[in-house]
Amino acid sequence: MNDTFNTIKSAATGLHREKGSRFLSFIYPVEDEAAVQEMLLRLKKTYYDASHHCYAYILGKHMDVYRANDDGEPHHSAGDPILGQLRSNALTNCLIVVVRYFGGTKLGKGGLVQAYKTAAAAAISAGEIITSTLTKAIVISFEYEAMGTVMPLLNRDEFKIVNQDFAEGCRITLECRENLYPDLKSILEGIPAVVILT
C-alpha cells in the first residue's frame, strides 16, 4: 500500500501574458472542499474586477476527489487544462486558480487551453512540490509494571510517541506510517499487558 503523495508545500503564484490578456495563477495546499471554497471566495474578493476565475483541484490520497471549472470560458478550455497540470505533476490536496484579465483580443479555444495550461504550470513551478506521508495513530494503556516490557518495543524509528500520560497508569499515543500500522497493531496485540484504546 502506498502511503505517500505529492502536494505543494505552500502557496505560490505565477503569471502568463498572452495577446494583452494577463493570467495570474495561484496554487494552494488544501485539505478539503471547505478550504477550496474559502480560497476561491478570497481570490474573487481580491480580484473582483477580473474577467474569469477558473480553477481546478484534486483532493485525497487516491486523487479521487477533483473538479474543474471554466467560469464562463468556453467549455473545457480553462478548468480542464488546469486540472491536467495537477494530474501531470501527480499533485493532490492542491487548488490552482487562474485569474484572467481580458486584454481585448480573443484567443480562440486552442489559445485559451494553452494559456490556462501555461499559467497553471507557472504556479506549480513557483511552488515547492513535497512528498507527504500518511500516518495513523493508536492509543494504548498499560500498568506501570509493564513499562520495562512495553517501552523497548515502542522506541523504534518507525513509531513516534506523540503523547504520554503517566498520571493513572500509562497511556501512550503512537503514530506510524499508514502502511506500518498493521505491524504496530500486531506488536501491541502480542503484549498481554497492553490494552488498545483506539
UniProtKB/TrEMBL annotation:
State any GO CC term.
cytoplasm
Q: Per its UniProt record, what InterPro entries does this chain match?
A: Impact (IPR023582), Impact_N (IPR001498), Impact_N_sf (IPR036956), Ribosomal_Su5_D2-typ_SF (IPR020568), UPF0029_Impact_CS (IPR020569)
GO BP of this protein: regulation of translational initiation
Pfam families linked: Impact_N (PF01205)
Which residues belong to any copy of the Impact N-terminal domain?
Answer: 19-124
Origin, by domain of life?
Bacteria
Q: Which PANTHER family match?
A: IMPACT FAMILY MEMBER YIGZ, IMPACT-RELATED
The family line of this record is: Belongs to the IMPACT family.
| Official protein name in the record | Uncharacterized protein, YigZ family
Species source reads: Cyclobacterium lianum
